[in-house]
């Protein structure tokens, strides 16, 4: 089942992340390194918002919504659909985006730094 929403073209990136986490060894490694539930709230060019999450606390899965049912995200990243596309393709750096105000982080800011290796795995899938 695809996580892509047509109104948020970059949401296809969540399918790439899910694909990168299909391998059990990769999934366990990501959970060990991530240790958190990461939420992404993307704003599209019509000004509407939608959220997705990556559970790197327990399951190593990707889904729609801020967190799996009954759970809360440890960190939420808020950015535009266009900026998420740049992030997932490797054309932008999260730290620079944060400094420029293009990426807002709610919750555990240090946890957000643990997301890098997962995004890199998705970027390598995007280049195939």
UniProtKB/TrEMBL annotation:
Signal peptide: none annotated. Residues 20-119 form the SCP2 domain. Gene3D superfamilies: SCP2 sterol-binding domain. Pfam families: SCP2. InterPro entries: SCP2_sterol-bd_dom, SCP2_sterol-bd_dom_sf. One of its GO terms (cellular component) is cytosol. PANTHER family: SCP2 STEROL-BINDING DOMAIN-CONTAINING PROTEIN 1, STEROL CARRIER PROTEIN 2 SCP-2 FAMILY PROTEIN. This is SCP2 domain-containing protein. It comes from Hortaea werneckii EXF-2000. The lineage of its organism: Eukaryota, Fungi, Dikarya, Ascomycota, Pezizomycotina.
